[in-house]
């Protein structure tokens, strides 16, 4: 049984957190591409999770916040990490060996659509309005425009890997919904506990399958792993639970569209990819989609009464 969605606390500070989350998570795909160059997927995910958990545990120690000791909390951490990180990131990291980054971004950006459908058809824990559906679709169209329609033409090249990415995306959508069960805990505590579980659960598989002591990772791969651990995993997961508590499921999912223009910029800087000529149009569509999904209901009604 899911708790009712928390009352969204609107304001520029909370939307700044949403933007910060998008910035942290937008680095995921380019950094993963760099890391996978010389580090196998299981070892890569386990290492980034353990490094991120260690970082957060040190910060919690400095802040004087203890980790919970009750079994209920760790059970929730384990369940949430499985559907929000361990399972989907294993799938995406494997699939990125066969699917171009642009295709991955297009497919992974469907998280708000799946979250909307799950909320509307199953959980109904917060209003799933037509305006939010329109915003989700508009943002998805903007995503396709930014990446370029050429990316969609090759979606059948590695169909199995692409289906795997969609399964991971559905898992992300479920995680944003069931993450509401953790709103009673400090976001940093949830992030640290979840990452620690995820890293430890994959460590035996890494030791048995990858033999990490035999690997010779490049300096770039090591830097990418540490950067992804601190920014994408540690800060990103902490901000995710903060946004989930303050803005709700559907609005938090809207950051997926904000990641696209940021991710394009990082791809240019880190991977040398070209900027699509239709970037400006895509940004307009993405901005409109995010606005539609995040606009307060009262503000929308006032606009309608004024004849908007």
From TrEMBL:
It is a multi-pass membrane protein. Residues 15-147, 160-293 form the EamA domain. It comes from the Bacteria. The keyword NAD does not apply. Its main location: membrane. Pfam families: EamA. It is found in: Membrane. The chain crosses the membrane at residues 12-32, 38-60, 81-99, 105-123, 130-147, 159-182, 189-209, 221-244, 256-272, 278-296. Keywords: Membrane, Transmembrane, Transmembrane helix. The keyword Transmembrane helix applies. PANTHER family: AMINO-ACID METABOLITE EFFLUX PUMP-RELATED, INNER MEMBRANE TRANSPORTER. This is Drug/metabolite transporter (DMT)-like permease. It comes from Bradyrhizobium algeriense.
